[in-house]
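Protein in question reproduced for absentees:

***
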Amino acid sequence: MVDDPTLDDIPEDERERFLAFRAKVDGANINPQTLLATDYLNHFNEIVMMIEMLPDAPDCIEDVNAWQPKTYAEHFRDSGFKDKDLAIEAYGAVPTKFREPFEKVVEQMNRIVRLTATRFGEALAAGEDAESQRDSVAQSVDLLHRLGEIASSIIHGSTKTLDQDEIDGIVGR
């Protein structure tokens, strides 16, 4: 067998299924090293753009509040992604070393979106103008971009995440 560093730390019980799906995703827009697709991040790109608009268009808070997190499978089920069925199926074979940090980052992004929407809505209800919230929104957007970059790097083979304490320090929790 050829020495393959992508198989490092993939337990034997996951390896066979991973290798089978790795062959299936050949030619698809799914990373063969992780079996994850960057298209999932489009779900977050949309909400980040809406959050960025809040200081200049505070009425967008309704759209931000209406946004709902989607699981990986839900996103692809609802998407026009060419290989969406394969992406959903392959997710079950994503090695734990990638799936767990990916899901952790997604959970952190969902939390930041909800926290930002709540804080902005409360500030508006308290009579604060949107301009006074500009720094807070910018901080949340920066964090969401940073987490999005981490999610993308996991999709491409990294296992690095941010600790919850790091996030709490950034958002002032």
